[in-house]
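We close this part of the discussion by returning to an individual protein. Part of our work consisted of pairing the sequence of a single chain with a tokenised description of its backbone. What the numbers capture is local backbone geometry rather than side-chain detail. The amino acid sequence and the backbone structure tokens for this protein are reproduced below.
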Amino acid sequence: MPTINTSDQSGRRALVVDDNPLMRVLLSSMLMHRGYQVSEQNCAEAALTKLKEEQFDLVMLDIMMFEMSGIELCQIIREELGLVDLPVVAYTAHGDLVNVAHMRMAGFTDFLFKPVEARKLDSVLQEIAV
């Protein structure tokens, strides 16, 4: 099973955006365990404000949120904020081909399916750390 060297991630900053507090805490905990400093936001608008104010090394977005979907938020991050090189990873319970195609078109760097498995998160983190 692949593992990630958490020392390589020390000091890296991640933004986790999810309207479900349990999922936010779970994913934040997984990232903190891997050395990330994590900021959490519960909605797209708050996330956009945070991204304008601070720099992050990674953004994790839930696809299904109330006011704005993660797909819409990723498009804004890429097009309006101009953060084209920022790794943005989607996570979703809906992994059908249509959703995967929409995620790719929106500019996501990668995606995970819920429940997020530690080994799959490690694999994604290794890919974006290269």
Observations:
- The two ends are 19 Å apart (CA to CA).
